[in-house]
C-alpha cells in the first residue's frame, strides 16, 4: 500500500471526478478480505455503505484488512488504512489519524453521506490499536 504522503502528492493535483477515480483505485489496492471476516463484529457503524475493518498483528505491527460494498467508500477506508497500515499498535493508538487525513479535505470533496462514517472508521482502527497496545 502506498504511503499517505505519496497518495496526497497525487491527490492535490487532481480535481473532482479525478479524485473520485483515485479513491476508487485506492480501494482496489486493499488486500482481499475474506467473506468470513465480514461480520457484525467487524462492521463499522454509521457508514452509509457497509464497511468492515479487521486488524491482524505480526511482529508488533498492525495490518488491517478492510472492505466495503461501495467503490468510493472502499477508497475512503483505504485512505484511512494507509495512514496506519503496518505501524506498531502503540504508534497508531497515539496517532491523530484525523489530522493526518486533514490535507485531503474530505468533508469538502465528498458528499456528507460518504464522509459521515469516516470518524467511526478512524475510531475503530484506533480502538483496535489501543487494545493491542495495552495487551
UniProtKB/TrEMBL annotation:
Domain (Fe-S metabolism associated): residue spans on this chain: 14-124
InterPro entries: Fe-S_metab-assoc_dom
Source species of the chain: Altererythrobacter litoralis
Family: Belongs to the SufE family.
Record-given protein name: SufE family protein
Record lineage: Bacteria, Pseudomonadati, Pseudomonadota, Alphaproteobacteria, Sphingomonadales
Database matches in PANTHER family: SUFE-LIKE PROTEIN 2, CHLOROPLASTIC, SULFUR ACCEPTOR PROTEIN CSDE
Pfam families per the UniProt record, alphabetical: SufE (PF02657)
Amino acid at each position: 500500500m502506498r504511503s499517505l504522503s505519496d497518495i496526497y502528492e497525487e491527490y492535490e493535483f487532481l480535481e473532482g471526478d479525478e479524485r473520485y477515480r483515485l479513491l476508487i483505485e485506492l480501494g482496489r489496492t486493499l488486500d482481499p478480505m475474506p467473506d468470513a471476516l465480514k461480520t457484525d463484529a467487524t462492521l463499522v457503524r454509521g457508514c452509509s455503505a457497509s464497511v468492515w475493518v479487521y486488524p491482524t498483528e505480526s511482529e508488533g505491527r498492525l495490518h488491517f484488512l478492510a472492505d466495503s460494498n461501495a467503490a468510493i467508500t472502499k477508497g475512503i477506508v483505504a485512505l484511512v488504512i494507509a495512514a496506519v497500515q503496518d505501524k506498531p499498535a502503540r504508534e497508531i493508538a497515539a496517532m491523530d489519524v484525523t489530522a493526518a487525513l486533514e490535507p485531503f479535505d474530505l468533508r469538502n470533496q465528498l458528499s456528507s453521506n460518504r464522509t459521515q462514517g469516516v470518524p467511526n472508521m478512524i475510531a475503530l482502527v484506533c480502538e483496535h490499536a489501543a487494545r493491542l497496545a495495552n495487551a
